[in-house]
Please model this.
Amino acid sequence: MKQQTGIQRPGKFLLTRCAALLLCALLLSARAAAFQHAPVIIKGHVSEKGAASLPGVTITLKGSSIGTTTDENGNFSISLPNDAGTLLFSYVGYLPKEMPVKGKTLINIVLEQDATGLGEVVVVGYGTQKKVNLTGAVEQISSARLTDRPVTQLSTALQGIAPGVTVTTTTGAPGADAGTIRIRGIGTLNNANPLILIDGVEGNMNEIDPNLIESVSVLKDAASSAIYGSRAANGVVLVTTKRAKGDQLSISYNGYVGWQSPTNLPDKVDALDHMRLLNMAYKNTGLTPLYSDAQIEEYQQKMITDPDNFPNTDWQKEVLTGSGVMQNHYVGISGSSGKLRFMTSLGYLNQNGIIKTSGFERYTLRNNADIRFNDKLSMKLDLQLINRTTTEPGRGMTNVFLQMNRIPAVQPGRFLNGQYGEGWNGNNPIAMVEDGGELRNNTLSLFGNLQLNYQPTKWLTAEVMAAPRFNNSYDNNFVKAVPTYTAAGNIAYTQPAKSELTNGTDRGFYGNYRASLTAHKTFSRHETKLLLGASRETFSGNGFTAFRDNFLFPQYPVQDAGSRENMQTTGTASEWALQSFFGRLNYGYNQRYLFEANARYDGSSRFLRSRRYGFFPSFSAGWRVSEENFMQFIKPVVNDLKLRGSWGKLGNQNIGTYPFASNLAMGAYSMGGEVVSIAALNDMGNEEITWETTTMTNFGVDVALFRNLTVTADWYRKVTSDILLKLNIPLSIGLNAPYQNAGKVLNQGWELGLNYSSNIGDLNYGINANIADVHNEVLDLRGINSTDLLISREGYSINSIYALQADGYFQSQAEIDGHAKQIGILAPGDIRYVNQNKDAAITNEDYKVIGSTIPRYTYSFNLNASFRNFSLNAFFQGVGKADGYLYSYSVQPFYSGGTAHEQHKDSWREDNREAKFPRLTYGDNGNNYQPSSFWMKSAAYLRLKNLQIAYALPQSVIGRLKLKSARVYAAGQNMFTWDKFWDGYDVEAPVGTGNRYPQVKVFTIGLDVKF
Model:
């Protein structure tokens, strides 16, 4: 058959065309699919209401693992597989927000603050939890509430911040103005300080610059604290430092300059009033007046023309000549370079005291680094160096204030030729401050924290940590012998007789090592989290002191320049170890029913091997009632309602290093004309000593209303048993009594916290308020009863005031004759005491507990408001009920040769029978000076702790200056106090003789800038 050419068969033609069309369709489909799945770049900016940018906001594609965070300017960029889907914006303390993409390439979001804090992440033991899932009593304090106050010690910044946390500051001395922290009362007669952990490692919070703090968590009940076992009986404070956020390099500066002045000083009488009042006291005591009218008249005429022979010394004015200027500067640099994030900061604090030779200086250098090697392995490496120097007069701050407030104005302070007057028997506080030497302490602390985090799967995390810490403290105490003179120029006294130098050094090395494993899984409506871990902590330290006196050249105060005749050396060393195993189980069902169990098994070298380990468990549960179906109809009103309860046991191992052992006292003795070393057994040991144990029950409720009001309330009962006491033993044993686990103390109370915020247009305002009460009672002391001014007795609180009960004044001799016999020679105007046992005389049997020094009803409230670029913050703090007691030179006129105050002019006389003070007497130290309720005053107070006014520069200005933000502020600390305490003395130091460096008012101006 002849083949045709140039013409195709119809069937083949159709197949070829179909194949071509199919291929084109496939190509077009592939191109469309490729176009559809091409990455889409979404950019934008996240801010809060008021236009402030938010760095570190988490942005995720809903239903996926794709995500990013905003940089320091609040900007973000995220790559999505397509232009569909929804972005979820979330940030701690703000309400989450969703935004559908729908083809957008630019998205700007404004987040609103969540006053309820339901989404807030709270730092707890060895981890974090959402606040909404907490079943224990935990209070978290943000950095914003700490850095606004010009404090030098972080502990003082916690005062009044959290309900149930009492912070007492008894002095404003530079470097010594740290607060004493008590969490839910005092549970022991021994060390009642809480455990302080900085980024998970035990440390001193007062070494940390407040600008470094991200947050502070206070673990108040056993459920939250039991994970720390033997050290948690007095509560736990977790300090978390700041870390780098965002991907851009940023620099911040915060600094202020301030001026200090004393809040309280006793108003002493001048020379003329001292003579007149002293004459009255002499006359009332049956003595001949010391000064005649002619002498007083002459004194008045010559005080100004001849001050050397007729002095009118204002001791406070002459002694308090320090500038009181303080300054604080902080520079932080943070950034990211791919897998490395770092935050480096340098802080400098300088505080000059109101006394020339008092001051405090601190340098802080810290670097927090985060390294992500890959998706599974990451590391944290933190390094910190702190150098602190504290100075005060060589003879001590207490001695200076004692003499300054007791020496009469008639004693010479400084003569016109510059020589020091004799003061009181050569004790001249002006000389002490200006030429009496110096006590200088320098402490160098080096801290490192290395953490490796390995996450083989999304639900399992392993972590190991090594955190060594080294402290070196050096004391240089030089007390210079200073001569004082008479008006004629002759040496009157030399105090002390010889110049003395004492040097001391203490070195300590702390080791902290930990490993943990955390599993976190969600099954349908079930959420479980399991933590297992082990840790080991060690300490080794040694101390050394050297002493010499009789320095021929006081201007060269080194040991070799002193005499060898009385030189002394001492040395000490100690060590301890703590080995622990711990675990925690969290379970939640449907975000409604919550359960947590903690356990720790501690072994401490402080106890004998057979009693070395202790087990400390806790259990807690919570019910989120607001998530039940029957509550949904009021969800817009009741945003959250949670009931919770807990029970647990805690321990206290801070009872000394090795109290179970019988230790030898080392010394030296002269025998046969030679000095020989000796050892003596003085103290009896007790091998049965074990932990002090605290059992605590807690019930609480958390409520969030209207999206702007939160209420937290707790009730607790805390019983500490096995408290170490020294019980009586037979004298025939010949040794001092050993410690025994014998005492028991109860703390029971309630706490209430409120947080409200709202706005009216551009005016934003809020209030934080809290109040707490604690009832402290000693339950068992095995019958031990002391008779000191401050006692601890069964049925009463720790450190109760024990004294006679005053009952006004005797108004006539007939009243004296008809009353039980009292001490001394009585006269109308003397204090009358209650005869408790109705016998013939006032004796020790008539003493009773008359007051308690433990504060009740501690409270605070913080008012804040902002209008556009202006903001105002006022913080008030106080105590509703407490008792204080001053005695001796502080309030008792002419005590042991002291002077009088202006308030003592209101003393009993025939024409002033309702006086503030009894009749003036001198030298009898008798009836009126007996411990009694007369000298006890209420220590309740309300204090305006901090007031700050700030202005944030507008965006138009900071944009031209190339800044991210800038704020200037002025603040006042300890501005006003309302109380009924003794005039001239601080109500926060309510017991003693008043010879303390006073708390100070601080006025500051500051600048906060971010580049």
Summary: The two ends are 93 Å apart (CA to CA). The chain is about 10% helix and 50% strand. The longest helix spans residues 10-36. Confidence is low (pLDDT under 50) at residues 1-36.
